[in-house]
Amino acid sequence: MNQVYGDETLWKILEASKDTFGDDIVFLCSFSNEDMIILDSLCRNKINIDTYTIDTGRLNPETYEFIDEISKRYEIKLNYLVPESVPLQTMLLQNGPQLFYESIEKRKLCCKIRKVDPLSKLLCGKKAWISGIRSTQTEERKRSKMYENTNGLTKINPLIEWTDEKVNAVIQNLGIPSNRLYDKGYRSIGCQPCTRPVFPGEGERDGRWWWENGSKECGIHTSNFGDSQ
Ligand code: SF4
To answer: What is the per-residue pLDDT across 119-143, written as a single tens digit (0 to 9) for each?
Structure first.
């Protein structure tokens, strides 16, 4: 009998995804606890799926340090998605570096240029991607399923039904490293200017764009990526 490492359900989903999509599947990792569970399972079980992270240029120092630590510990070759220089320069020239505090539209513009567009470009050439979102995180994610297909692109959300308690238990039981921001009261890992620790009673993404009233999504989990873009 094959030895199964870590969470068996997760392991099987990841392996089946690799078998189905081969080299045309990628894993998008933000180095949240959820994404660390997926990364750990890929590495433990030697499932060779390319891992990408979006480097917006505005992440917390703790996250950059964590990326270095994890890359060495798991001996992974991490791929970086970065903003295109011309639209980024235009945005900065027209709006300055702190535009996200001025309006929701400007915040969404920054998220589009720094996150959504680089991911869209990558996914245009792929058939599937893996994400660590969970249904309890936002209103939009409550409607997400384990497998979603838009424009010929499959999105696999293997942790969609996991609870916060299960995430924390797996992190502890398997000794999976965790971003130090969690020890500082953060419950979601995002860009430094747009994320703060949460207060007792707040939801786990209430520290994202806390000055806004509305969606706690940047766009990467609400956009219809795929061939038709
Ligand atoms: S989270 Fe903030 S800094 Fe990061 S891309 Fe979005 S608006 Fe820009």
So the answer is: 999 999 899 999 999 999 888 889 9
